């Protein structure tokens, strides 16, 4: 439990029972406040002191990669998983499909049919479009954003959709995916991390394979973490250092432009605040993604069907 008096101050309670992360979260929310949140190095020392001196194993804290809906503003607060799902098989299942109103997770590169949500702001009417054309999750999302509003998102939209159609034997992509960014269970925004040397941190790898932007995205998500994002000058310096040895004039970044909503976004769902666009990069076109030249300058005017090296975060 935490108090904001005089700054963030948390009481940590070590629980010696072994549970899954989800069960541990439920236990802490029922009996305390939530799984432990760590705001700074002082909290980290207090957290370590709270554990049993004889206990040498690991213990859950409240850091997680959560599920997120494709449509902005739709919160993930209810789920309808098949038994045993989500299981994140081989640590590669980050997108969600639906069959007969129940969900499962799968690799985002698998082909499925998909469901678009369409909102007509002038008339105030909404409707849903089932596409019986099997594509990857990202291709389904791109299609829905260009020709409709987005992939169907949220339990309310799924319930509305259920009243408009017969039951289908096929599986459909829906707009749910696992966020690549880490967050605290209690909603705290603290950016403090104290990863073990072998655990996730801002480690980058240049992939000297020539791929389209979409293929590069899936490659990074299947083998590492994600296509790299850059949110400040420090990260910019690390990424441009990796880009120097690329075998192509440019390398793909995890930066994408949406024509429908008219803005650039990072695939890790971080806001584009810091930028390093080169001269003559004004204006935005459809079907382009962000790339960096070997000197570190960002460029917009590269069709995402070009094949380039790319940088993954690990």
From TrEMBL:
Q: Which Pfam families match?
A: Lectin_C
Record domain C-type lectin: where: 12-117, 122-200, 211-298
Q: Which UniProt keywords apply?
A: Disulfide bond
Q: Which PROSITE patterns match?
A: C_TYPE_LECTIN_1 (PS00615), C_TYPE_LECTIN_2 (PS50041)
Asked whether the keyword Disulfide bond is assigned, the reply is yes
CDD domains according to UniProt:
CLECT
InterPro entries for the chain = C-type_lectin-like, C-type_lectin-like/link_sf, C-type_lectin_CS, CTDL_fold
Instruction: Indicate yes or no for the key word Nucleotide-binding.
Output: no
Q: What is this protein called?
A: C-type lectin domain-containing protein
Organism classification: Eukaryota, Metazoa, Chordata, Craniata, Vertebrata
